## 1
Amino acid sequence: MPLLEVRNLHVCVEGREILHGLDLTVNAGEVHAIMGPNGSGKSTLSHVITGKPGYQITAGRILFKGEDLLALGPDQRAAKGIFLAFQYPVEIPGVTTMNFLRTALNAQRRARGQSGYSTPHFLKRARTVAKQLNIPQSMLKRGVNVGFSGGEKKRNEILQMALFEPVLCILDEIDSGLDIDALRIVAEGINAMRSPSRSMIVITHYQRLLNYVVPDVVHVMSKGRVVKSGDKQLALELEASGYAQFEDAA
Amino acid sequence: MVAARETVERVARIGVDQYRYGFETLIESDKAPKGLSEDTVRFISAKKSEPSWMLEWRLQAYRCWLTMTEPTWARVHYPNIDYQGIYYYAAPKPKKQLASIDEIDPEILKTYEKLGIPLREVAILEGVEPPPGGPPSANRKIAIDAVFDSVSVATTFKAELKKAGVIFMPISEAIREHPELVQKYLGTVVPISDNFFARLNSAVFSDGSFVYVPPGVRCPMELSTYFRINERNTGQFERTLIIADKGSHVSYLEGCTAPRRDENQLHAAVVELVALDDAEIKYSTVQNWYPGNSEGKGGIYNFVTKRGDCRGKHSKISWTQVETGSAITWKYPSCILRGDNSSGEFYSIAISNGFQQVDSGTKMFHLGKNTSSRIISKGIAAGKSRNTYRGLVSANRNAAGARNHTTCDSLLIGDKCGAHTVPYVEAKNSSVTFEHEATTSKISEDVLFYCIQRGMSQEEAVSLVVNGFIKEVLQKLPMEFAVEAQKLISISLEGSAG
């Protein structure tokens, strides 16, 4: 059984259809890259999978481990192990990153019927993971993303991913706004998490990230559909020839 | 976050429309006849076996009150109050003379047990650090004066306080036992000719707390008063007077609850603080009067006059308030910075949900030289509520070098509520520095989704964001109150983000 199955997905925002019958199958352990021009519906897909309000699903279904995902609330989906690294992480003043991480992690654990981590146990884990990602301790004491640079925000997303150990990671333009060093750190963090039981959907405009995070499958999205799928070679072709050739295919 | 989890669980248990403190205690009460007249004032004074000077003072206040009409400048709307339809005095009927707490009607004790008094839990709280200089947490002792309807029913730790020379007792007792102190200070901060509600209070107040801290004494424990309105159609008019003599220090906490009722109840308290040279008073309030139900029916009308007088040089008065209850709040804890180098602080969290109306803020009167004041106000409006910050900062001609910094932030939850900021600044001396900052923001859908995508429920997410917003002020509260306040805030915002 695939980990994620999206079938004939039609999605509207304020009455306008954004996704027009999208299909996508992701098996356990696979890393899929989704590429495509602005406005092709990549971010919409990530929002619909994670349950962001404001989207009407007019047809189709999404199955996660064979279960109807659309029947679950966004917090329940998170507890099932679906994680979204946001393109634009929000700032939450007055809430320390540490407090945020612990509240979120324990909420997920409770929803799964597990006991919450004790404070010392949690702190130890959070510090270890932060160190691996080159995140200074002082950052954990600051308000969530408040005053963080673009690179710090993205690293903070990877920190959360590493801490929550999700089953399906969706990375929405994790490479945007990163310089080459930051990109390498983020990519290392992602690669460290690759495992046969974990799948990833990497949304990006650029081939650059895929040099570091090598995908098993590459999809091209255009106008709300997947118009072509292939292996990592497809990303290189795109880099050379651009998206224009697919505009008509859609 | 433990507090958040508890809150969510508790909220799940109680449901939207259930006010946690909404129970009623069935006890016989001894009421004054309904309505207000000179006879009512005489009745109350006689009930309290007051000396004649006190009765005269009350009657004078009553006559002052008659000459005035209710103020209408606040941004609150409510039907006319029928001052003749209220009972001005209701005391739990004692079965006999009480000699100790053990003899108090068990029904009343049960009420306090339900309220979690005095056995308040101390918990270590994520994100709220102990006040600087204070003990980290531990089992700090708190002396409590419990005021039930109009009468103080119990004061704890009396003996221990007496050893330190601190007087902490119901004001009715202080009038009899320490008339010289009461006469010297009562009405010197809020005179009987003050505003409409203060005049009313001066005429009919039945009890409240009295504190005197002698020179050089640091009060060995937190002092606390719990107010509860129980009786139907009863107004509560408590009077609190706190005097910190030269070089002394005292921290005082106040908590309020009331049962759920369909009709509105009037609460018009007066608090007077006097700080002499080098003295410091820290006054904290967690106000959780019944706010009315989800249709806006019932709830407490809270018209309160709180004022502190920094009478001595280098004195300091600090107000911290967490306001979550009441149908209407009309409250402006103020500081008169009379002594040179004195300072005043006002830290406020005012939360309104449902149909609540809050018009609250502070006044800082800079009279002395080099006086300073700091205001941090955090208003949170949800539901269909109205939340107004109203503040005055003034410096008179002699207040050379006065400084004020005001931060006034509003947070809106949903799109049917309103937040307003009405600052007044008056400087009659050119050497003063007054700064005012204000922001209004909304909890955005994006922030909520970010939290919920990480596994939090809607309630947890709102609670987390709000707690972040108010953290600066929450940290000013004594530890025990901070825990309680954080829980209250989450409960009062239940269902607000749907």
## 2
Amino acid sequence: MSSFDPTADTTPEGAERQDEERRRAAQGEPPFVEAATPESRLAGSLREAAITAGIVAAITLFFFAFRTEIAIGGLELTVRWPVWLSWIAIAFVGRFLLSFFLYRADRTKASGAAKGARGAAAVGLGKVLAVVFLLIALTLPILLDTLFPSQNRYILDLAILILTYVMLGWGLNIVVGLAGLLDLGYVAFYAVGAYSFALLSQNFGLGFWVCLPMAGLFAALWGLMLGFPVLRLRGDYLAIVTLAFGEIIRVVLLNWADFTGGPNGLLGIPKPTLFGLEFSRGEGSFSDYFGLDYSPIQRFVFLYYIILALALLTNFITLRLRKLPVGRAWEALREDEIACRSLGINTTNVKLTAFATGAMFGGFAGSFFATRQGFISPESFTFMESAIILAIVVLGGLGSQVGVVIASVVMIGGIEMLRNLGVLTDFFGPSFDPTQYRMLFFGLAMVLIMVWKPRGLVSSRSPSAIYKEKKKIGADMVAQGEGH
Amino acid sequence: MSAVMVEEGMKGAPLLSVRGVETFYGKIQALRGIDIDVYEGEIVTMIGANGAGKSTLMMTICGNPQARNGQVIYRGEDITRLPTHTIMAKSIAQSPEGRRIFGRMTVMENLQMGALLQDEAYFDDDLRQVFELFPRLRERQGQRGGTLSGGEQQMLAIGRALMSRPRLLLLDEPSLGLAPLIVKQIFDAIRELNQSQGLTVFLVEQNAFHALRLAHRGYVMVNGAITMSGTGRELLAREEVRSAYLEGGAH
């Protein structure tokens, strides 16, 4: 402002020029100018990582590096440089990876056509992923046997658990993902399936394979029974009623002690047999018949293939149904109930079939759960289970089959992996028990996924009808809040 | 020409006949004894201001809400108390108010939903006819319904209704929120359907000028009651109609 001339701004031109000058002085260098020689991605990422590491170092210095403990005669200072340094290292590496692979890539990303191409690539990726998942799933017992013979049984057990949730997720996907009916009590059908099998086997001496379809039917029947009172409900109201339904089933199982065993549950549920061959030692067993050495792992492999087959059956039926009128009606119902009725669709039937079909798969999964555990009690069917299944469906992307698989592996496998994270005790001290924080990490993971992908991991939907050429609806077109 | 068709139509029993229909929303009476007739091969329009009860009449014909008193008769059958989906399965199709297309489904899937109750053998033919009527839909067939423009969505809503091979097409304000040029396209398509295929159309509209020019006969609804009726030309010529509905709308 030293060049201020009281006479110059008496004319318009002078005032304008002065104004310009003043503005330039205030601004300095014009912002947003591209660097003449753009630094390489590696150098830039390293620089950003270093800055982040510096900030982390400064912030966490007093929290991680120094620790005071109450001792006799005052406080005792302990210095923990390794902890501090490892956090800095984590910040550095994390930021570097983000900058190098994500943020930089975004800056060069073109919109429009490139976005469409990315959408198409995502579709291709989904297909490839599905095939890869299937191949891994089919050969898993052999893979484990060669790769991790020592942990064979543990991982196989985990795989069975994950597949159970995949199947439950696929079953719930029909109700929530396709038909758009928010069901918070899905675990009720899981419980009905499990108790149906357990009670049938104990009271009538029936085996797994006879009870499996019956359990599915019973669950479907309960699906219809839930469906009738909630036909007129949608959204929040439906969610509350289904939540109550799930609790009613659990409370009945808990209190009807004469019939269900109450809180003690039911014991001694028979194991599945392979055409009458039991997986045990001795005469008439699987290993005896085929002349193999007995190994407890054989039963796990068998259970694994049962749940894999059940899950694949669920997937296959769902995919077929989507292309049939009833499946299309489910999806239309999710979009607009009034439009459905104006097209002559009986929305009552559509809702009931969705509830019944979803419940049936829940029932199948339930009876598998019972035979795997050999013991069931109402404790296994709390609201938490419903919430986890729903979380799998929502995080996977409503209506997406591959999404459910990914979400199940991440959520169930992830929770289980947290048990083994002994590394964390190095940071939080020996008293830190990772299993106690599982739910915290679980919640954190859900929040992160929802921030990163608000419509779920796989948010694109492939059309069920194609006239000439297949086109894909990208996630970017399925905007939040549209299509209601 | 319209007069000829009206007289021809008048001879037989009406395709759709509404007799003394009264509809209530709780205690509020929305329709106060409506009588209308729609004959085979006609375009009949119902004009009226906002809140007159036009859409309520349309919804009452479809059975949601059901009329408290009076009768709705379609091809000699009393459909007053039937559930909506049964009514809509009787060769009646509706393009509801606000279009209500399935936003996340493609154009193709939307059209397929319209044909859900129809024999699959007709599907390819019907699809071709809809695409001939609205070539834009052919171009957009793989696109998600929600990403279409308003006019295209209206075309899709009508096309979806046509896929069920209706004899009677109910249209609720197809011109709502559309540019005049698009409105003209849509009304031309309706006329084309009526002339080439003899489709009977019952049209509820606020755009009185276009609707009365298109329709063979028209009714005017005020506060839940019919106040005037006549051929489209007659109504267009009447002073009360001009002053109430056409001031500023006729150019």
## 3
Amino acid sequence: MQFDTPAGQNPIDAQAIIGQPHRRVDGALKVTGTAPYAYERHDAVADPAYGWIVGATIARGRVTRIDAAAARAASGVLAVLTTLEHDPAPPGFRTTLHLFGGAEVRHYHQAVALVVAGTFEEARAAAHLLRIDYESEPARCDLAAEAPKAEPIADRDGPDYPVVDRIGDVEAALAAAPVTLDETYTTPDQTHAMMEPHATTAAWRDGKLTIWTSAQVVSWHRNSLAQALGLAKDDLRLDAPFIGGGFGAKLIMRSDALLAALGAKAVGRPCKVALQRPLIANNGTRRAGTIQRIRLGADRDGRLTAIAHHSVNGNLAGAFAEAAVAPTRLIYASPNRDLSMKLATLDLAEGNDMRAPGEAPGLMALEIAMDEMAERLGLDPVAFRILNDTQVDPRKPQRPFSERHLIECLEVGAKNFGWARRNPVPGSASDGRWLVGMGMAAGFRQNLLMPSGARVRLEQDGRLTVETDMTDIGTGSYTILAQTAAEMMGLPLDAVTVRLGDSDYPEAAGSGGQFGANNATSGLYAACTTLRASVAARLGFNAEEVAFANGMVTAGRRSVPLLDAAKDGPLTAEDRITYGELDKEFVQATFGAQFAEVAVNRFTGEMRVRRMLAVIDAGRVLNPLTARSQVIGAMTMGVGSALMEALVVDIRHGFFINHDLGGYEVPVHADIPHLDVVFLDHPDPVSSPMKAKGIGEIGLCGAAAAVANAVYNATGIRVRDYPVTLDKLLDRLPHAA
Amino acid sequence: MQPFTYERAASLEAAVAAVAARPGARFIAGGTNLLDLMKFQIETPAHLVDIRHLPLRAIEDLPDGGLRIGALATNTEVAAHPRVKREYGVLARAIVAGATGQLRNKATTAGNLLQRNRCPYFYETSLPCNKRQPGSGCSALGGVTRSLAVVGTSPHCIAQNPGDMAVGLRVLDAAVETIRPDGSQRRIAIGDFHRLPGDRPEIEHPLEPGELVTAVTLPRPPGGTHHYHKVRDRASYAFAIVSVAVVLQKDGTGRVAFGGVAPRPWRVEDAEALLPDGPAAVVKTAFQGATPTVENAFKIPLAERALALALSEGRA
Amino acid sequence: MSLPLSHEISRREVVTAAAVGVAAAGLPPAVGGQAAGSSGSLPLSLTVNGEHRRLDLDTRVTLLDALREHLHLTGTKKGCDHGHCGACTVLVNGVRINACLSLAAMHDGDEVTTIEGFGRPDRLHPMQAAFIAHDAFQCGYCTPGQICSAVAVLAEIEAGVPSHATGDLAAPMTLSSGELRERMSGNICRCGAYSNIADAVVDVAGRP
């Protein structure tokens, strides 16, 4: 199904099942521990060997020698694969990560060996017996030091934008503006820290490989691994029915998959490999830290006349820039604009996608700048943002937004949160030993369209089976796909079985970039539309006028059980959604307003988020229960971004020193209060037949800045260097006595 | 983790003899720290003697009004003990400020006292560390040091003692009871239990090979109000950046010990004598001679602020 | 998938077990000294979810890996293997611990309850049902540990175990929002379901 004109009235609009807060259809498996994850496939693979990955302990240079004799002789060891005995594997899709093979070391904890043994304990012990010699080169790993050498770079995901994106004359506008701001903000390197480590079980049979792995996009992993192994795609099956979180880390194939496959081949036996937690931060990908300079100019009324946003970050040679300026292109109006990015070379784990790449760190900076600018203008931060709303792409004024209700988000949020009670004078509200402040920020994240396929089968017993290689990484895919199929076919939810994550199923969008839900359900919509036509034909209806409801197919006065269509055998339909040019004609995006109340201990600077609200405009909400979970989860990550999360580089040795879940702090229960979410009801017919948009990332966009702005309102201390930790407040807090 | 043999000790005497007899043998009880370090091969015992079932778990009144806490009493059991809650509140609060419910259910009193440091370089086995490999050098010097010690350090080690419970025990003037392989017993004042690194950072406590902690004793309750304030970046499940234990009497005198700032719970009796003069005076004296890094210098003003907070609670 | 489930524990049973564990001044029956053979393997028996299981394990095997790799009870998760995440939380003799930081060998004779022992898809424990009702999980990987902890937390409060959030140490413990969040903090959920988990637990416990 090609989607190239805005959706009209369609069967989804009934919202009998879709759009309703149904509980997760896979919930019972998850709460009973019976949902099988990649390393747990005892059901599929008996007696696997265990692999243990050995990471390089230099940041840059070469492996000169690996003495594996002792390890190979160790108890239980079946094989030791060393990087010197393998050719370099080509990097997978959307990454430059060098996973294994060859002498070159490009970053710390890059995989240099795999020890395979009969048991986990034997593999781990033998790994310590490897003697690895390196020839080390000085590592570049201090962004501040390397930034002056950074080169301009285009946005890999915004190829239509010039490398230096200038409109009007920013310098002149800034010079003429009565109120200006020129500040620099920094955001740190972050790690995804999903709870399930990267993990793969691999088994070869007759030259064909099956892997059970933890992948966000099945086809990307499959293609990448097939290429790395020199295997025909059809000779590689991938199964990922349950994924223990990803947040972008599992968008790309990682060393666990490649090494499990190589290990299994080497020992002639299935092999499973989990990337050990202490290796994850340095072995894989990170959200790249940024240094962002933002300049704003406005007239006395508060209308922005100039926006300049320059971001620099560092990455491996040949890798990409963190597109921190991406939200600035589209969130506010201003006739004069100057946006650009630069990239320095850093010999650290690859900077790559992490939840809301670009927008998340970009808005961490921009939305503090907006808060500062509102104060300079003497304007309320909510009013200032409303004043500078745009309904068109500022770069192409003839290109409107499909649906944009940022102003409503801001207004509803201000009202629900009690924003009017905020004292605009920082440091003026307190509660005992706590200084209390409110902050807010706007959120913006693009809506991405991806082709997505699905297969549906009406079984002879009247049940409906959905098959697609779409994944559920916690997002609720199983549930919204079941709801979509039930709605389309007029069946109760429990008559639908959804099967996901298997590369034998039609290729779907996968989970990432908040594109999963809208595109995967649209692909299923397409397949169901085809099935409806087949059903109608088989039952002798004219497809145009047929209604599917309550298990019956009805046209005019004639009503036939849907089941009858399958009485002579299952009826199968497969289709996919593809998109035309609507996203060129219209800007498609999601919007949010984030509000936070934070208490700061006047003695110690400890910060506690007391309340938080997000108001979200993201098209039709396919399931308010699971969508809300996406948003509160993103808000939680936003609190982490604001107050604690940072990978810290040891610049002498070139690696992130806090590379485990003890050293890299993410929020715990005690950090997170009750979180409120409001969804606006604005289906977007330009986005897809589902009229939905992304929901998985918008909740993060602006969340950290809202918290940081609340800290400022509480204390009068402006921190422009994330995370906002108490040591950055101490010298400016009230005298303690 | 290197292979090791394992035995479950049948008696105290047998346990001590078993460890004394075998080079590389170690006691294990809760194991939450030891097992973690074994996974990294930072600890490589050849033999483990499981003492978990020895009769060292009781918490009993002492004739002098004090309390004797068996070495194997878990953190949870100690914190939940009625007398600890009522009369040694600073200890209960220090314990529950540490780790998590799960870990406190497993961790024992002796094991907690003997937990090793959490310097990230101690865990980074590819880099030198004087605690791991004596004489190899200290990688933390010149490295990432925000969490590390600011006082009591040496040019050979700047790791901090990460404990909370030990800070509470320190202000309570606890003593550690042990049994040695020859059957003799001794008491070690808590203030002498954790050693400063000096030029031998690998020696962290005065225990001899095979010597086993059997109990921790508390003198009569000190009265006063008890406070333990722990400062960290997230609200729970993190080691202290700075913590402060205070027992404050009505007349404004009291006892103070700091955690997270030194290689051992940091109590300076001369400093706490200045309590009536306020937190600045106490901290100035307590941190005399401190050698913080640029990254962790904030711990000293933070210690003053944490103390001020505890005192304000005490006066409230 | 079939699982060796034989019983379901009620909240009350867990409460009782935990209370006993906490109050234990008495000791388990004396165990005679037993040593591992030179091979480093050791026979042991566990009662897991009410079922008696005999194993012969490498001394290095953690309780977590014994459950996951040897008994194929994979509901207990390995998130970090270093006590930093709580995904491996199980109940041993009624008390919650991190299974990753415990040697299987040390649990000879112990009673272990894993998530599989609480209920199964067609017969859910009230806490499991509440997690579904409140959408108190997303990816599901931390969920078994969260549920084991949640059940244990209610027991610990009843048993008078204080927490960092406890106000008056001498007063009876209550399940305030602060208490609940502090006590659950040993279970990290990166999907960020905390707000919903709190609602689920309060639902089961009854509002304070």
